[in-house]
Amino acid sequence: QVRLVESGGGSVQAGGSLRLSCAASGRTFNLYHMGWFRQAPAKERELVAAIIWSGGNTYYADSVKGRFTISRDNAKNTGNLQMNRLKPEDTAVYYCAATYYGRNWPPVSPSEYEYWGQGTQVTVPS
Questions:
Q1: How does pLDDT run across 40-79, given as a tens digit for each residue?
Q2: Which residues contact 9 (CB under 8 A, 6 or more apart)?
Q3: Are 69 and 14 in contact (CB under 8 A)?
């Protein structure tokens, strides 16, 4: 069992920045790939970014490439999503998720992730 707790959401003007954090507890965090998903009202949950178990490889959705940066610190059992140049269309609930490292890389579907945080709201007013 892996427990994930997100923090760092909030409201920011367009063009601003936010940093989301995900604290993991339970099983060994470095055995899991980590992803950040988001879900806007009436939309499906989508993968924003993912980072491989070792931190040595990352994946980004086209919509956030060049603006968002995913990172992790396995020694501290934490993951982060740095979000810059935020846009109104980035407004959503953001979730961190974990999947066992044995899965193919990158795991892009929500169904590929075993563990989820409770979510944190990010709002970028238009």
A1: 999 999 999 999 999 999 999 999 999 999 999 999 999 9
A2: 18, 20, 94, 120, 121, 122
A3: no
Q: Please answer whether residues 115 and 97 qualify as being in contact, where contact means their C-beta atoms are separated by less than 8 angstroms.
A: yes
C-alpha 28/C-alpha 49 separation (Å) is 21
Residue 44, both tokens: 């499906």
Tokens of 36: 């950040």
For residue 115, which phi and psi values (nearest 5 degrees)?
Answer: -125, 145
Determine phi and psi for 77, rounding to 5 degrees. 55, 45
The model's confidence at residue 98, banded by pLDDT at 50, 70 and 90, is very high
Cβ 72 vs Cβ 34: under 8 Å: yes
Report pLDDT digits (tens) over 22-41: 999 987 888 999 999 999 99
> Are the C-beta atoms of residues 27 and 35 closer than 8 Å to each other?
no
